[in-house]
Write a structure and sequence with these properties.
CATH architecture of the largest domain: Alpha Horseshoe
CATH class of the largest domain: Mainly Alpha
CATH topology of the largest domain: Serine Threonine Protein Phosphatase 5, Tetratricopeptide repeat
Largest sheet: none
Oligomer: single chain
Number of helices: 18
Distance between the termini: 95 Å
Low-confidence stretches: 1-27
Mean pLDDT: 83
Structural class: mainly alpha
Helix content: over 70%
CATH superfamily of the largest domain: Tetratricopeptide repeat domain
Radius of gyration: 46 Å
Order of helices and strands: HHHHHHHHHHHHHHHHHH
Length: 407
């Protein structure tokens, strides 16, 4: 995230595009221009008039911007020359450009306090810029739009800087100030970049709900600006946010949209493409992990259900066996008294039922299944009936029972 803010800060400082009427200086031949500048002597600089030095100031800006990406030392050197001459002739516009450029080079060297010092110098220079209804084209008068543009750029840059320094509340204050001016003039592309930065800052600070709000605003303004890169960047931001929130379906949806754009612009947007692919990989890893967790939980629930069912069956079986055991014990206790005569015998319903089934030719196993009792219990009941009726086998038992009128 820090690297992203750094790159976006360069965008805000050096390339506000058509919204700020900024001309891209990088296409100019800075080497030839540097050769021309090298012909000036110190004496000529000292003796040059304001009109002549105005042209020199423009050339210095060209050199500062032109070497920005290729030779930071030279870029900073020409920025300092520009700062010197702008103070000498009282040119606040050139002064704020030079101070801002020097501050940016300190930022690149991670000397943030020095960067903040020069950004503050740029802010003071902007405050000195004379305002008129329209720009007069000479650098002596600036419209309110010109002033707002310069201020908004600095607010955005300071927001980025303080975010890098982990001063989140200060960063957000500057971002909000920039947003007011961007909205005032309808600079949708700048709003998109700004709110993306605000979303990144809130996400880094762990304030994910606020981050979602700012990412959504970034997407809204990028769509209004019809800027495909800004739209893809907003999608990437939302994807990374929902990844942090573990909302993988949403994350994948936005990252897929971002990846479509970055795949078509791989050469120009390599870093953003790599970041988006990295987020996508993290989402897939998280989804895979969740799938395995879900499968494991499902298997655990199935095993738990099977175990519960097994225990339930065992408990019912044990209860049944205990009940049978009680009946057997009660019957055994009764059998321990004096043997009753056949006339005194009173068969219990269960004994009568077993006797009926014996008479029908049922085996012990069949009787047990029919009465939902264990075979061992049936054997005990038959033995008891044999004893009660003084029978030695099933056929004799049935005959005695018929003679006594029990069948």
């Amino acid at each position: 995230m820090r690297r992203s803010l750094f790159l976006i800060s360069f965008i805000i400082c050096f390339s506000m595009t058509a919204e700020a009427d900024y001309v891209d200086h990088r296409g100019h031949n800075v080497d030839s221009l540097e050769t021309v500048m090298a012909r000036w002597t110190a004496k000529e600089f000292d003796e040059a008039g304001e009109e002549q030095m105005e042209k020199v100031a423009m050339d210095l800006e060209e050199l500062m911007y032109g070497f920005n990406q290729t030779n930071g030392v030279k870029s900073e050197y020409y920025a300092r020359m520009l700062l010197k001459f702008s103070r000498r002739f009282g040119w606040p516009h050139h002064e704020q450009v030079a101070a801002k450029g020097i501050g940016q080079h300190f930022w690149a060297k991670e000397q943030y306090d020095s960067a903040a010092f020069y950004y503050g110098m740029a802010m003071k220079a902007i405050e000195k810029m004379p305002i008129s209804e329209i720009s007069d084209g000479t650098g002596n008068r600036y419209s309110q739009k010109d002033i707002d543009n310069a201020l908004s750029q600095m607010y955005g840059t300071l927001g980025n800087l303080y975010s890098m320094m982990d001063s989140v509340s200060v960063a957000m204050d500057y971002y909000e100030k920039a947003g007011v001016l961007f909205k005032k003039h309808g600079w949708n592309n700048s709003c998109s970049v700004l709110y993306y930065n605000m979303g990144e800052t809130m996400r880094e600070d762990g304030q994910l709900i606020k981050a979602e709000k700012y990412y959504m605003e970034s997407l809204e303004y990028s769509l209004l600006a019809q800027d495909s890169l800004a739209i893809a960047t907003s999608y990437k931001g939302l994807g990374s946010l929902y990844l942090n929130m573990h909302k993988t379906s949403k994350a994948m949806r936005y990252l897929n949209d971002a990846n479509i754009y970055f795949a078509d612009h791989e050469d120009e947007e390599l870093q953003s493409r790599m970041e988006s692919l990295d987020y996508t990989s993290q989402v897939l890893t998280l989804q895979k992990k969740r799938l395995w967790i879900t499968i494991s939980l499902l298997l655990a629930l199935i095993l738990m259900a099977m175990t519960t069912y097994y225990i339930s069956v065992k408990l019912r079986q044990t209860a049944k066996e205990n009940k049978e055991l009680v009946e057997v014990l009660e019957g055994t206790m009764e059998g321990m008294g004096p043997a009753p005569t056949k006339k005194d015998i009173r068969l219990k319903p269960k004994e009568k039922e077993i006797l009926d089934l014996i008479a029908k030719g049922y085996t012990n196993t069949q009787i047990a299944e029919a009465m939902n009792l264990s075979p061992e219990t049936i054997k005990w009941y038959k033995k008891k009936l044999f004893t009660m009726l003084d029978a030695s086998n099933s056929a004799e038992l049935v005959t005695i029972a018929k003679n006594e009128g029990w069948l």
